[in-house]
Known about the structure:
This protein is mostly helical.
Amino acid sequence: MAAKKAAAKKRKPNAAFMKPLTPSAVLATVVGAKAMPRTEVTKKIWQYIKKNGLQDKKNKRMINADGNLGAVFGGKKQVSMFEMTKLVSKHLK
């Protein structure tokens, strides 16, 4: 019985979630042009945000856009983490 529980806890990655997607030219300036899974795109965006200090100092859930991210965010100066994922998905094919 215990072995069954351990096997049930191990989740299989969703194949659609791991499918390589091609970033648009605008998004490629931040994450690179090669096709990668959505999870990798998110990871690279966060690396870019941290490297350039774009996370809002007072409200850590808000991301301040620089020139490159501003284009990805549709010209918005600041977006929430949740809105960011929605805006980034528009740039993936």
